[in-house]
TrEMBL record:
This is Pyridoxal phosphate homeostasis protein. NCBIfam families: YggS family pyridoxal phosphate-dependent enzyme. Its cofactor is pyridoxal 5'-phosphate. One of its GO terms (molecular function) is pyridoxal phosphate binding. It comes from Paenibacillus tyrfis. Residues 38-230 form the Alanine racemase N-terminal domain.
Length: 247
């Protein structure tokens, strides 16, 4: 079992290198984030032993559960990649260095409010629903510019880039379209030169489509299944409409 995580990581790393070669990119410019929802701690420790340092959680509760043990590894960094309910903001800002999933003004306000209290700031990405699928979160592409501008006015929030989930079970062309759309929104936002807004991070690509994402400019890919194996909970548990309850 221990060898499996290690072997899977080796394969993913090789595929990343290949995708970089194909698209003339440098491997240092693409970070591998391991998506750890439902993954038991032993497997995370195996990944750490293989040299991995960047992990992403979808739920505040799971993050809270895993954090104490992970804290002993000083180089380990956590990002939040799931749908964030405003009432969970307090937990999440305690543990993570980047939130990938800010997709509405109300969440920005809640984050700002908490960060002011704690006298802290937080790096964020704005999540865009590039596939227009109902089942997924993210701001509609049409409102991306406005949302980024609004979020940039909270001085505790540093907008660092954009995140998307590509269309699932789709052809390469369809997912490529999602990633190109995200890239083009990044370009449009850069042209606006909003004060304090940086746009260097593009978080896109998962197990099924990270090669395409790298070809289209991803700077962080988020991989779970390819490294840790199939999850026992369906993604709808993390992504479905019920999670929207608070807004
Ligand atoms: C689960 C998840 C991933 C990883 O998905 P895999 O298909 O298992 O690689 C990436 N991003 C988000 C937001 C996720 O919830």
């Amino acid at each position: 079992m221990s060898h499996l995580v290690e072997e899977n990581l080796k394969t993913v790393r090789q595929q990343m290198e290949l995708a970089c070669q194909v698209s003339g990119r440098k491997i240092e410019d693409v970070k591998l984030l391991l998506a750890t929802k439902t993954v038991p701690l032993e497997k995370l420790q195996m990944a750490i032993q293989s040299g991995e340092t960047l992990f992403g959680e979808n739920k505040a509760q799971e993050l809270r559960g895993k954090f104490p043990l992970m804290q002993q590894y000083t180089r380990v960094e956590w990002h939040f990649i799931g749908h964030l309910q405003t009432n969970k903001v307090k937990d999440v800002v305690k543990y993570v260095t980047l939130i990938h999933s800010v997709d509405r003004l109300k969440l920005g306000q809640a984050l700002h409010h908490q960060l002011v209290k704690e006298n802290k700031s937080m790096d964020i990405l704005v999540q865009i629903n590039t596939s227009y699928e109902e089942s997924k979160f993210g701001a509609p592409p049409e409102s991306a510019l406005e949302l980024v501008e609004q979020l940039s006015q909270f001085e505790t929030l540093n907008v660092k880039g954009l995140m998307t989930i590509g269309k699932l079970n789709a052809t390469n062309d369809e997912t490529r379209h999602c990633f190109r759309l995200l890239k083009s929104i990044q370009t449009q936002i850069r042209e606006k030169k909003f004060p304090r807004v940086q746009m260097e991070i593009l978080s896109m690509g998962m197990s099924g489509d990270f090669k395409v994402a790298i070809e289209e400019g991803a700077t962080i890919i988020r991989v779970g299944t390819s490294v840790f194996g199939q999850r026992y909970l369906p993604d709808s548990y993390y992504w479905n409409e019920n999670a929207r309850q608070d807004d």
